[in-house]
Protein backbone atom coordinates (compact mmCIF):
# COMPACT_ATOMS: atom_id res chain seq x y z
CA UNK A 1 0.00 0.00 0.00
CA UNK A 2 2.91 2.37 0.66
CA UNK A 3 3.92 2.28 -3.01
CA UNK A 4 0.43 3.48 -4.01
CA UNK A 5 0.81 6.45 -1.65
CA UNK A 6 4.19 7.23 -3.23
CA UNK A 7 2.58 7.23 -6.71
CA UNK A 8 -0.17 9.50 -5.42
CA UNK A 9 2.30 11.98 -3.93
CA UNK A 10 4.42 11.93 -7.12
CA UNK A 11 1.31 12.56 -9.25
CA UNK A 12 0.21 15.52 -7.08
CA UNK A 13 3.74 16.95 -7.09
CA UNK A 14 3.94 16.62 -10.89
CA UNK A 15 0.53 18.29 -11.33
CA UNK A 16 1.44 21.20 -9.04
CA UNK A 17 4.79 21.72 -10.83
CA UNK A 18 3.07 21.74 -14.20
CA UNK A 19 0.41 24.19 -13.04
CA UNK A 20 2.99 26.54 -11.56
CA UNK A 21 5.21 26.39 -14.67
CA UNK A 22 2.48 26.69 -17.30
CA UNK A 23 2.39 30.09 -19.01
CA UNK A 24 -0.92 31.92 -19.03
CA UNK A 25 -2.03 31.78 -22.66
CA UNK A 26 -5.23 31.69 -24.61
CA UNK A 27 -3.71 29.51 -27.34
CA UNK A 28 -3.01 25.78 -27.46
CA UNK A 29 0.09 24.29 -25.85
CA UNK A 30 3.06 23.92 -28.23
CA UNK A 31 3.19 20.17 -28.86
CA UNK A 32 6.34 18.96 -30.58
CA UNK A 33 6.21 15.61 -32.39
CA UNK A 34 9.64 14.05 -31.96
CA UNK A 35 11.09 11.33 -34.12
CA UNK A 36 13.07 9.41 -31.54
CA UNK A 37 13.43 5.96 -30.04
CA UNK A 38 15.49 4.37 -27.31
CA UNK A 39 16.36 1.18 -25.49
CA UNK A 40 16.80 0.80 -21.74
CA UNK A 41 18.28 -2.36 -20.22
CA UNK A 42 18.24 -3.09 -16.54
CA UNK A 43 18.43 -5.40 -13.62
CA UNK A 44 16.39 -5.45 -10.45
CA UNK A 45 15.41 -7.28 -7.34
CA UNK A 46 12.33 -7.58 -5.18
CA UNK A 47 13.30 -8.26 -1.58
CA UNK A 48 11.11 -10.90 0.03
CA UNK A 49 10.42 -8.60 3.00
CA UNK A 50 8.07 -6.07 1.32
CA UNK A 51 4.55 -6.19 2.76
CA UNK A 52 1.90 -7.14 0.20
CA UNK A 53 4.48 -8.56 -2.19
CA UNK A 54 4.96 -12.14 -3.27
CA UNK A 55 6.75 -13.95 -0.41
CA UNK A 56 10.05 -14.65 -2.17
CA UNK A 57 13.04 -12.80 -3.54
CA UNK A 58 12.72 -12.22 -7.29
CA UNK A 59 15.57 -11.15 -9.58
CA UNK A 60 14.68 -9.77 -12.98
CA UNK A 61 16.47 -8.45 -16.09
CA UNK A 62 14.51 -6.03 -18.27
CA UNK A 63 14.47 -4.51 -21.75
CA UNK A 64 12.42 -1.39 -22.49
CA UNK A 65 12.22 -0.44 -26.19
CA UNK A 66 10.81 3.11 -26.26
CA UNK A 67 9.19 5.31 -28.90
CA UNK A 68 8.69 9.09 -28.48
CA UNK A 69 5.10 10.23 -29.07
CA UNK A 70 5.47 13.96 -28.46
CA UNK A 71 6.56 16.63 -26.02
CA UNK A 72 5.49 19.95 -24.58
CA UNK A 73 8.08 22.57 -23.63
CA UNK A 74 7.25 24.86 -20.70
CA UNK A 75 10.71 26.28 -19.99
CA UNK A 76 12.46 25.26 -17.80
CA UNK A 77 10.26 22.14 -17.85
CA UNK A 78 9.68 19.65 -20.64
CA UNK A 79 6.96 16.98 -20.65
CA UNK A 80 7.53 13.92 -22.86
CA UNK A 81 5.01 11.24 -23.72
CA UNK A 82 6.52 7.89 -24.66
CA UNK A 83 5.31 4.37 -25.35
CA UNK A 84 7.44 1.65 -23.80
CA UNK A 85 7.48 -2.03 -24.43
CA UNK A 86 8.38 -4.24 -21.48
CA UNK A 87 10.27 -7.49 -21.74
CA UNK A 88 11.47 -8.97 -18.46
CA UNK A 89 13.28 -12.22 -17.67
CA UNK A 90 13.46 -13.86 -14.28
CA UNK A 91 17.14 -14.60 -13.56
CA UNK A 92 17.02 -16.58 -10.31
CA UNK A 93 16.48 -20.35 -9.97
CA UNK A 94 12.91 -20.07 -11.29
CA UNK A 95 12.40 -18.93 -14.87
CA UNK A 96 9.71 -16.88 -16.55
CA UNK A 97 9.04 -13.75 -18.59
CA UNK A 98 7.00 -10.53 -18.50
CA UNK A 99 5.70 -8.94 -21.71
CA UNK A 100 3.80 -5.66 -21.68
CA UNK A 101 3.28 -2.12 -22.94
CA UNK A 102 3.19 1.10 -20.94
CA UNK A 103 2.58 4.73 -21.87
CA UNK A 104 5.01 6.84 -19.81
CA UNK A 105 5.08 10.55 -18.96
CA UNK A 106 8.50 12.07 -18.25
CA UNK A 107 9.00 15.50 -16.66
CA UNK A 108 12.47 16.92 -17.36
CA UNK A 109 14.09 19.99 -15.84
CA UNK A 110 16.16 21.74 -18.51
CA UNK A 111 19.05 23.05 -16.42
CA UNK A 112 21.64 22.91 -19.19
CA UNK A 113 22.29 21.69 -22.66
CA UNK A 114 24.04 18.38 -21.80
CA UNK A 115 22.68 17.15 -18.43
CA UNK A 116 18.91 16.76 -17.95
CA UNK A 117 17.43 15.27 -14.73
CA UNK A 118 13.90 13.83 -14.89
CA UNK A 119 11.13 11.98 -13.08
CA UNK A 120 8.69 9.69 -14.84
CA UNK A 121 5.62 7.56 -14.24
CA UNK A 122 3.28 5.40 -16.24
CA UNK A 123 1.16 2.31 -16.31
CA UNK A 124 -0.21 -0.29 -18.62
CA UNK A 125 -0.80 -4.00 -18.91
CA UNK A 126 1.35 -7.10 -18.97
CA UNK A 127 1.33 -10.87 -19.21
CA UNK A 128 3.74 -13.04 -17.22
CA UNK A 129 4.52 -16.65 -16.48
CA UNK A 130 6.77 -15.90 -13.50
CA UNK A 131 5.14 -18.58 -11.29
CA UNK A 132 4.85 -16.25 -8.30
CA UNK A 133 2.87 -17.54 -5.30
CA UNK A 134 -0.19 -15.45 -4.49
CA UNK A 135 -0.15 -13.33 -7.64
CA UNK A 136 -3.48 -14.79 -8.76
CA UNK A 137 -3.35 -13.99 -12.48
CA UNK A 138 -0.96 -14.04 -15.40
CA UNK A 139 -2.58 -10.87 -16.81
CA UNK A 140 -1.62 -7.89 -14.65
CA UNK A 141 -1.55 -4.13 -14.41
CA UNK A 142 1.87 -2.51 -14.52
CA UNK A 143 2.67 0.71 -12.64
CA UNK A 144 6.11 2.27 -12.80
CA UNK A 145 7.77 5.39 -11.48
CA UNK A 146 11.31 6.58 -11.22
CA UNK A 147 13.97 9.23 -11.59
CA UNK A 148 17.06 9.54 -13.70
CA UNK A 149 19.39 11.65 -15.80
CA UNK A 150 19.92 12.07 -19.50
CA UNK A 151 23.31 13.12 -20.92
CA UNK A 152 23.79 14.40 -24.44
CA UNK A 153 26.72 12.49 -25.97
CA UNK A 154 26.48 14.12 -29.42
CA UNK A 155 23.76 15.59 -31.60
CA UNK A 156 20.86 13.13 -31.69
CA UNK A 157 22.37 10.63 -29.20
CA UNK A 158 21.73 10.67 -25.45
CA UNK A 159 22.65 8.32 -22.61
CA UNK A 160 20.13 7.62 -19.84
CA UNK A 161 20.61 6.18 -16.36
CA UNK A 162 17.71 5.78 -13.94
CA UNK A 163 16.16 4.08 -10.95
CA UNK A 164 12.63 2.72 -11.36
CA UNK A 165 10.09 0.94 -9.17
CA UNK A 166 8.17 -1.69 -11.15
CA UNK A 167 4.84 -2.81 -9.65
CA UNK A 168 2.88 -5.74 -11.11
CA UNK A 169 -0.47 -6.85 -9.69
CA UNK A 170 -3.93 -7.80 -10.90
CA UNK A 171 -5.52 -4.83 -9.13
CA UNK A 172 -7.89 -7.02 -7.13
CA UNK A 173 -9.48 -8.65 -10.19
CA UNK A 174 -8.48 -12.09 -8.87
CA UNK A 175 -8.94 -13.26 -5.29
CA UNK A 176 -5.19 -13.65 -4.75
CA UNK A 177 -3.45 -10.32 -5.39
CA UNK A 178 0.13 -10.39 -4.13
CA UNK A 179 2.31 -7.95 -6.07
CA UNK A 180 5.74 -7.93 -7.62
CA UNK A 181 7.55 -4.74 -6.53
CA UNK A 182 11.02 -4.67 -8.05
CA UNK A 183 13.72 -2.01 -7.69
CA UNK A 184 15.24 -1.60 -11.16
CA UNK A 185 18.45 0.11 -12.21
CA UNK A 186 18.41 0.99 -15.92
CA UNK A 187 20.94 2.17 -18.49
CA UNK A 188 20.17 3.01 -22.09
CA UNK A 189 20.53 5.13 -25.19
CA UNK A 190 18.11 7.56 -26.87
CA UNK A 191 18.38 8.32 -30.57
CA UNK A 192 16.62 11.29 -32.24
CA UNK A 193 16.51 11.47 -36.03
Termini Cα gap: 41 Å
What's the count of strands?
9
The helix fraction, in percent, is 10-25%
Strand content: over 45%
**What is the oligomeric state here?**
single chain
Question: What do the pLDDT scores average to?
Answer: 85
CATH topology: Porin
As for the number of domains, it is 1
Strand order of the largest sheet: 2-3-4-5-6-7-8-9
Structural class: mainly beta
Question: Which features does this protein show?
Answer:
single chain; 193 residues; mainly beta; Porin; 1 helix; 9 strands
Give your account of this protein's structure:
With 193 residues, the chain is mainly beta. The protein has a single domain, classed as Porin (Beta Barrel). Helices cover 10% and strands 59% of the residues. The chain has 1 helix and 9 strands. The chain has an 8-stranded antiparallel beta barrel. A hairpin with a 6-residue loop joins strand 4 and strand 5.
Secondary-structure map with pairings?
Layout: H1 2-21, E1 31-32, E2 36-46, E3 58-74, E4 77-90, E5 97-109, E6 115-128, E7 139-154, E8 157-169, E9 180-192
Antiparallel strand pairs: 1-3, 2-3, 2-9, 3-4, 4-5, 5-6, 6-7, 7-8, 8-9
Brief summary:
The protein is mainly β.
Amino acid sequence: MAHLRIYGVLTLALASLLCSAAPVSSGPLPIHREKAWGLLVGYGIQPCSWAGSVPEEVRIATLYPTLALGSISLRPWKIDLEMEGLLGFRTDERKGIIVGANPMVRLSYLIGSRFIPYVEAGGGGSYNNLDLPGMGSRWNFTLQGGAGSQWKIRKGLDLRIEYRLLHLSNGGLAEANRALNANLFLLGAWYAF
